Structure formats: structure tokens, C-alpha cells
Amino acid sequence: MTTMDNAAEAFAGESQANRKYFVFSEKAAAEGYPNVAKLFKAASEAEAIHAKRLLFAMQKVGTTEENLKGSVAGETDEYTKMYPSFIKKAQEESESEAETVFTHAMRAEEVHAGRYSIALDSVSKGKDMEIKKVFLCPVCGNIELDEAPASCPICGVPARMFREIE
């Protein structure tokens, strides 16, 4: 394997560890272990630092326009190819929880691709997006612009559950 192959493998591992330790932090806090939660949170942030540095080492961070083009392509691949095949396999194996997660993610990825396309259109004209606010659904990952809907069109969560991204 080349150094860049190793960097790509390390990036994947560091990224996964970042998310895993973040979830472990939430779980420790919920179980009444605030100091263990802090330890997991610190480790999560450390893994994010490693992942970020690896992206730069691999020269995978371009201009905002380049990053948006790549993001549209990646999200589109996920909702048109990856998740449909995952959903089919989950159905075959009667894994209903995984099927729900895959379905929510697939639909959210389609929204993400659309939001990135809007951003790309603006950036390609040398402008920022003309939006007031960005809202995130904490259940399915749907992203809404300007205001949260009465309920999430993907998973049904009420507007009060959406988190405004600053």
C-alpha cells in the first residue's frame, strides 16, 4: 500500500472513532458517569483532529466550489446507489431497524445533495447562499433552510426537535 492508501485507511478509522467516541460520551453521561463522558468526548475531538489533518495531507480539501461539487456527487451516489442496495439487503434479512435507518439516511442524502446544489449555484456566481437559518433533524439528519417544518418530511419529528445550526 502507498502512503496515500495508508492515509485514506487512517482517515476512515479516525472518522469512525470520532463518531463512536462521541456516542459513547453521550451514553456515559446518560448513565451518570460525567467524567467518563468527558474522557470519551476529548478522545472524540482528538480523533477529529487526526481526521482533519489527514484530509489535508491527502490534499482532499479544495476550494469551496470544488468541495461542493464533490459533495453533490458523493451524496447523489449514496441516495441513488449505496442506500437502495443496503435497504434491499436489510429487507431480505428482515433487519427492520437497519432498514429504517438506511431509508432515513437515503432520503436525507437526497436533500443534502439538493442543498449542496443550491450552495454550488451561489458559490459559482461568487456569492454566499441567501438563507436565514439552517435546521437539522436530530433523528434522520434532514436539513431544512430558513425554518423548521411542522414535522420532518422524512421521519416525522416535530419542529421543536429540530436544532438550529449556528
Fill in the keyword field for this structure.
single chain, 166 residues, mainly alpha, three-stranded antiparallel beta sheet, 4 helices, 66% helix
Describe this structure in words.
Residues 132-165 form the Rubredoxin-like domain. It comes from Methanochimaera problematica. Residues 1-127 form the Ferritin-like diiron domain. This protein is mainly α. 66% of the residues lie in helices and 5% in strands. Strand 1 and strand 2 (143-145) form a beta hairpin. Helix 1 (3-30) packs antiparallel against helix 2 (34-57). The longest helix has 29 residues, at 64-92.
The end-to-end distance, rounded to whole angstroms, is 40 Å
Rg result = 18 Å
Number of helices: 4
Give the oligomer, counting copies of the same chain as homo and different chains as hetero: single chain
The biggest sheet, with number of strands, parallel, antiparallel or mixed sense and barrel status, is: 3 strands, antiparallel
Overall shape: it is globular
Strand order of the largest sheet: 2-1-3
Quick one: how many beta strands?
3
**Low-pLDDT residue spans:** none
The structure class reads: mainly alpha
SSE sequence, one letter per element: HHHHEEE
The helix content is 55-70%
Protein name: Rubrerythrin family protein
Organism: Methanochimaera problematica
GO molecular function: iron ion binding; oxidoreductase activity
Keywords: Electron transport, Transport
Itemize the secondary structure elements and their pairings.
Elements: H1 3-30, H2 34-57, H3 64-92, H4 96-124, E1 134-136, E2 143-145, E3 163-165
Antiparallel strand pairs: 1-2, 1-3
Helix pairs in contact: 1-2, 3-4
